[in-house]
Amino acid sequence: MEDHLGQILKLVIDQAIQTGEPVGSQFLVDQYDLKVSPATVRNYFAELEESGYIMQPHTSSGRLPTEKGYRYYLQNLIKPKALTKKEASDLSEAAKFDKEENRRLKALAKAMAGLAENATVIGIGNMDSYYTGLSNLFGQPEFKDWNRIVSMSDILDRLDEVLGKLRHVRFEEPTTLIGSECPFGAMCGSVLLTAPQGCLIGILGPMRMDYSQAIALMKRMQQLLTE
């Protein structure tokens, strides 16, 4: 992909992650002080849309990323993000819980769900599952559609089964599975990690979740669990 198209795609995705709303050409020019006209940005939109990286909702003149767009972003455009002082502090506090009965792992999961404003799931042992932050997940704009909530609820009802399949794979580093590859549903994104104790932990959100933040949270959690 040419650099200028990659830049526009990144800006569209960065903005979509923040708001969940379609992104317009005039907005990008004004928000990022682009040295091109809105008409030129619309031409870039057309190229990206033709290649399948973005789409135009019927009710809007703006654009949203597609699954292909997010994949390109994760493979080529995403930038590492450092945790804020609050994020680091909240995780450190959660890590002070007693290790017995996996209280420490569950406390970290709850803290991550709050910080990421998404859900967190854990597969403990052979068939024990735990999840927290569902209200964060269902509060996202993507889940205003009742059918999507029902679909997600069905997957969560089978959480033991879903996590059971994932336990057969080790995720040594935070790993993103999105869209058609996401075991929790095609409208979702996830970041998965096998914790040092062998438990599987994942941050689950809409496909437009903030992957840079989720990966940073996972890496810090991994460090805390080895201390």
Write the layout of secondary structure elements.
Blueprint: H1 3-19, H2 25-32, H3 38-50, E1 54-55, E2 64-65, H4 67-77, H5 85-94, H6 103-116, E3 119-124, E4 128-132, H7 134-138, H8 146-157, H9 159-166, E5 175-178, E6 188-194, E7 200-206, H10 211-226
Antiparallel strand pairs: 1-2, 3-4, 3-7, 5-6, 6-7
Helix pairs in contact: 1-3, 1-4, 2-3, 5-6, 5-10, 6-10
Describe the structure.
By secondary structure, the chain is of the alpha+beta class. The protein has two domains: 3-77, Orthogonal Bundle (Arc Repressor Mutant, subunit A), CATH 1.10.10; 85-226, 2-Layer Sandwich (Beta-Lactamase). The chain contains ten helices and seven strands. The strands form two sheets. A five-stranded antiparallel beta sheet has the order 4-3-7-6-5, with helices on both faces. A two-stranded antiparallel ribbon has the order 1-2.
Please trace the helix and strand order, writing H or E for each element: HHHEEHHHEEHHHEEEH
- Kindly, what is the distance between the CA atoms of the first and last residues, rounded to a whole number of angstroms? 42 Å
Structural class: alpha+beta
Which fold does the CATH topology of the largest domain refer to? Beta-Lactamase
Proper CATH architecture of the largest domain: 2-Layer Sandwich
CATH uppermost class of the largest domain: Alpha Beta
